[in-house]
Amino acid sequence: MNTTPSLPSTAQPGIGIIGAGAIGTAFTRILARQGIAAVIANSRGPDSLAALAAEIGPLLRPVTREEAAAQDIVLVAVNWSRLPQALAGLPDFGGRTVIDANNSIEAPLFKPAELHGRLSSEVFAELVPGAKVVKAFNHLGAQLLSADPQAGGGRRVLFYSGDDGQARAGVGALIERLGFFGIDLGALGVGARLAQFPGGPLPLLNLVKLG
């Protein structure tokens, strides 16, 4: 495992969010805290996100799914059973980075989805053709994720993994810019297995890098 240095502050990729549930809204808050603009979409349309946009302020703009999916970096955080519908019909992602912040389980029963021995990120990747998938922002609960990452005298740890080195480095740089300490777990076959919930050993671990 290794850490990735931050990109220069001049790097300003467009960020889109698909899904306005607990993780999606937590992500909007940590972006806004660092002055980073984003667009967000859900299944009910932009008007349904007016209250969230008013809370976050001008850095967050509700849009259609298509506009959110057209950004340089797209975070997807949707209830597992609704992912196929949420992503259906979108154009090919054309090599852009898509963050898989999903877990193959959902309330209220928290019954694991049947993956037939596959990684949840493998299943997810099939729903976002042409994307460079990076697994991240899934292993902590939304309340902890949106809290101040400067915790306990250090920085809260976020894990990430992906098969494309450039996409992975970009997400690692974003994690660092948001104030977290990113740990690169390497390829999805290793990292996503460690970080997926249920099944992996890393979810829900609230780790802090001191110093």
Q: How many extended strands?
A: 10
Top-tier CATH class: Alpha Beta
At the fold tier of CATH, the topology name is Rossmann fold
CATH architecture: 3-Layer(aba) Sandwich
Q: Provide the low-confidence segments as ranges.
A: 1-10
User: How many DSSP H or I helices?
Assistant: 8
CATH homologous superfamily label? NAD(P)-binding Rossmann-like Domain
SSE ordering: EHEHEHEHEHEHEEHEHE
**Could you describe the largest sheet, including whether it forms a barrel?**
10 strands, mixed
Main attributes of the structure:
211 residues; 8 helices; disordered N terminus
What does this structure look like?
With 211 residues, the chain is an alpha/beta fold. The protein has one domain (15-210): Rossmann fold (3-Layer(aba) Sandwich). It has 8 helices and 10 strands. It has helices spanning 22-33, 50-56, 65-69, 83-87, 120-127, 142-145, 165-177, 188-195, and strands at residues 15-18, 38-41, 60-62, 73-76, 97-100, 132-136, 150-151, 154-162, 181-184, 208-210. Strands 1, 2, 3, 4, 5, 6, 7, 8, 9 and 10 form a 10-stranded mixed beta sheet that branches. Strand 2 (38-41), helix 2 and strand 3 form a beta-alpha-beta unit. It is globular, with a radius of gyration of 16 Å. It starts with 14 loop residues before the first strand and ends with a strand.
